[in-house]
Amino acid sequence: MPTQVGRSSNLNLAEKRALRDLQSNKEFVIKEADKGGNVVLWSIEAYLEEANRQLTNPRCYQKLPSDPTAVFASKFDSLLCRTLSFGIISPQEKKYLWVEHPVTATFYMLPKIHKDEKKPPGRPIVSSIGSICERASEYLDFFFQPIVTALPSFIRDSAHFIEVCGRIELPGEFYLVTCDVESLYSNIKHSDGLHAVTFCLDKLSHSDRGHDSFLLDLLKFVLHHNYFLFDRTFYLQTAGVAMGAKCAPTYANIFLGWWEEVFVYPSLAYQHHVRNWHRYIDDLFFIWSGSREGCTDFIHSLNSNPHNIFLTHSISNSSTSFLDLRIFVQGNKLVTDLFRKPTATNALLEFNSFHPWHTKVGVPTGQFLRIRRNCTRDQDFLMQARDLTDRFRQRSYPKRVVATAFQQARQHDQASLLIPVGRSRESQTRFITDYNDSWGQGKHPKNYVRGFKNTYQPYAWRLRTKAKVKS
Known about the structure:
Elements: H1 13-24, E1 28-32, E2 39-43, H2 44-55, E3 61-64, H3 69-85, H4 91-97, E4 106-111, E5 122-127, H5 134-149, H6 158-166, E6 175-181, H7 184-187, H8 190-204, H9 209-224, E7 227-230, E8 233-237, H10 248-264, H11 268-273, E9 274-280, E10 283-288, H12 292-303, E11 311-316, E12 319-322, E13 325-330, E14 333-338, H13 357-374, H14 378-394, H15 399-410, H16 414-417, H17 452-455, H18 460-470
Antiparallel strand pairs: 1-2, 3-8, 4-5, 6-10, 6-11, 7-8, 9-10, 12-13, 13-14
Helix pairs in contact: 5-9, 5-10, 8-9, 8-10, 13-14, 13-15, 14-15
């Protein structure tokens, strides 16, 4: 097994010098592309121009005259103390939710080069690690997840959707339709979002009403006190939910679940023409039984709403793409293949990196199993495997490592890879930290876990609540 003992770096002097020059260059920012795995050098002028375009939108953001941390922290403490006094949360929960020394969240953007390569719009992200609302957002996400999974349209992941496709029988006249909700996270009005969560809690929650009321108060605080710093200026987000918040995907999911329940499902067009309506957060897939013109009219009717929901769409009677899947019609059934965006590049881990050996050899295994899972037809799997092999060779992977991973994947069929793997965590404690080569020099992680149980005792409420929800 190859080792790297004694090596301090896998970069030569020229590469180190180039990296230092890039890091010190103030003429551009280096960001990962929003999708596709590309690394983008974004000129600082264009980056600031796009940030100012977004942050000067009075519907979504408001400039603050000073740092509001002390005021917002006092309000949050009052909310927690009041809820604790009513016996709705435990002292452990209050201790977990309270952030004693909060840091200010920061704003940045990821370039959407799949939308426009020359002048990409930015996906706004608020990094809230250590902020007042970080743990509150995580707490909300925990209680919102069972509501999301109970929504009729819920799709867990690609494997779940492949399983769904295998059960679909196509009608006589049909179209495959995919839709994307444009700028969902930033377009949800606070009043609409809170109304949607109230509706879904009343319908799907198994918690007591007092705790549901606390969840709404906590969500209201998170939405109305999402402040951040950008370019030495404080801002408050006045509409939508911050991407980067732990509860953002579940909150957006619940909002669209409410929209479906109240506006989509009751419509006559849906009841007479829509088959197999499925959704992964803001990505929609359904089958339209009827004319293409009728389908277009149906989507236009969905876009005529007061809730800032706008769908971009694709309609086809032969194939479409959804998540990382290409979906084809074969007879009266749907089959799937791997889909990669046109802007996707070869972002596979470089084999000469300093990652541990087992990590590097595990990458081909996972990638070949992924294409085996996504490809219904053997010929599609073999074609994708050839392309994947070429991409691994470009990243210096040995032939033997790649060939072994391919053979392992070839021994599986698609159905066997769609079975969810159960993971029991009740009997194990996970200690996750940054990689450090001192672990291999006698400093075993177990020496750092003393007091770990007491430190994370506030998480005990999760286990109790999870058992309650499942029952």
